[in-house]
From TrEMBL:
Name of the protein described by the UniProt record: tRNA-(Ms[2]io[6]A)-hydroxylase
GO biological process: tRNA modification
Annotated GO MF terms: tRNA 2-(methylsulfanyl)-N(6)-isopentenyladenosine(37) hydroxylase activity
Organism expressing this protein natively: Bradymonas sediminis
PANTHER family: TRNA 2-(METHYLSULFANYL)-N(6)-ISOPENTENYLADENOSINE(37) HYDROXYLASE, TRNA-(MS[2]IO[6]A)-HYDROXYLASE
Length: 192
């Protein structure tokens, strides 16, 4: 398994904990988009049964996470917000192949990296929330574990379809660019 090449600054978790309502709006949107992305794989690659099976499971889990975050928002009196572009994801997508087998490998590897970043950040937020809200801290700890599983799902699917050395070469490309994007992102009450 690979590692991210840039850690999220510790200030991110503090900022999110102090602006939790705004973060929940973004978090809900990310979970909804993650579910839709997984279903996009099902539609785009219907002839690849292992992708279809794995992505249906990912879509279900992400939709359940969206539902859980929605309920948290309702308890706090926070409404869903309008859809906003995610600068992190959009900057990554600009760099990828637009068609063919290269697109499939890129989307699987990006899925893995984005889930990994979510895992890292949910774990950070969980530790930060232990100080003020142990129940919410536990929720984010569980989400971090789920994101870690999804990270592995996407990565293993890439290895099922492409030679390991090709996957590693493209993964190195993505990890370098992802690290640069994370360094350039402003700290905000958002998952990315």
């Amino acid at each position: 398994m690979f590692k991210l090449r840039q850690e999220t600054p510790a200030e991110w978790a503090t900022h999110v904990a102090e602006n939790l309502d705004a973060f929940l709006i973004d978090h809900a949107a990310c979970e909804r988009k993650a579910s839709a992305n997984a279903m996009h794989f099902v539609v785009r690659y219907p002839d690849k049964a292992d992708i279809v099976d794995a992505m249906i499971e990912v879509a279900r889990e992400e939709l359940e996470h969206f539902h859980q975050v929605f309920h948290l928002m309702q308890k706090r009196g926070v409404e869903l917000g309008p859809d906003e572009k995610d600068p992190y994801v959009n900057d990554l997508l600009k760099l990828g192949y637009k068609k063919g087998e290269g697109r499939m490998m890129d989307r699987l590897l990006l899925g893995s990296i984005i889930e990994y970043r979510g895992c890292e950040r949910f774990a950070m937020l969980s530790r930060e929330l232990l100080k003020t809200d142990p129940d919410l801290a536990q929720f984010y700890k569980e989400l971090a574990a789920s994101e870690a599983k999804h990270r592995n799902d996407f990565y293993e699917l890439a290895l099922n379809y492409f030679p390991a050395e090709d996957v590693q070469e493209r993964l190195d490309f993505w990890l370098d660019h992802e690290a640069r994007i994370v360094r350039e992102l402003p700290i905000r009450a958002a998952l990315h």
